[in-house]
Amino acid sequence: MPAYSSNLETYSYFMKSFKFFLAALALAFSTQSCKKAETQQKQKPVKVSYVEISEVEREQELRYSATIEADNTAQIGFAVSGIVNAVLAEEGQYVKHGQLLASLDATTFSNSFKIANSSYAQTLDLYDRQNQLYKKGSLPVSEYISIKAKLEQSEANKKISAKNLADCRLNSPMSGIITIKSIERGSTAGPGVAAFTIIKTDQVYAVISVPEVEVGTLRPGMDVSIYVPTLDENLKGKINIINPQADQTSKTYMVKAKINNSNQKLLPGMLAEVAVFPKKNKKVIVIPASSVARDADNFTYVYVINNQNKAVRKRITVGKITGKQDLIVEQGINSGDKVVVSGVTRLKDGAEVTF
Questions:
Q1: Higher-confidence position of 76 and 7
Q2: Closest Cα partner for 58 from 226, 286, 276?
């Protein structure tokens, strides 16, 4: 009897354990089924729209940041020494070619010119009388040569004195804007000391730096479009200088485009944007800007739909923005690819899509 009771207890314990195992198995199966259902629900195809990419022919456009530069800059000063008695121009003033800017006290030079002029007149009179004698054969050749040399020397002295007197007046060598005034009335001026700095601005340059891969497409005389944000104006210009020597640091080439600035609106140092249009057209791939996104590494990418109707993420290299807010793609996708243009934010790599 005791043996039978022991077997019964063992059997009862076994059945309870087996039932617990079945319950746990059922719960695990139920949980797994729920997860699978949730996964299937998450993998429901995402509705998107797309465009099929094709190459289009566009006028090639190259854009560069530019700085406005004066056509010419000149430092000017007096050729003689003296005391400044008049200053007739100020910094920021526009002056014309030949305009009087400043003058020196010319008393000493005026007196020197009078003496030289008088000496020349006397020597010329003496030469005329002795020349008549020489023609008649009444004057030795040596005396004639001597008086002729004195006349030439006297004439040279007169010209030097006249120039020194004229140099007491400082005139502008060109039309432009005075950027620096270095003299004041009563100060001493002398040769080699700049009195004014003038920039010529009737014509100015838009100066750009062009990469090696693009400089070969540019030619002198090529038309360019210049946008100046400060003025909010679009201007026209022409390339006239392409420096053949690359910058040793940036490996770019300096290019200058000349711009008419007769209205004096453009000032040196202003920033601008230059657009160049090489003559030959170029086939490019263009996509809507709305189709482009950025990943965690700040790389741009798009979703391309494959033959299984799945969205495949592809990194791309974008170029210029066109006037319609489309992007030119330089690398990453090909003609014929189907690029998602709406529903991009709901996608992940490999997601199934529907239309």
A1: 76
A2: 286
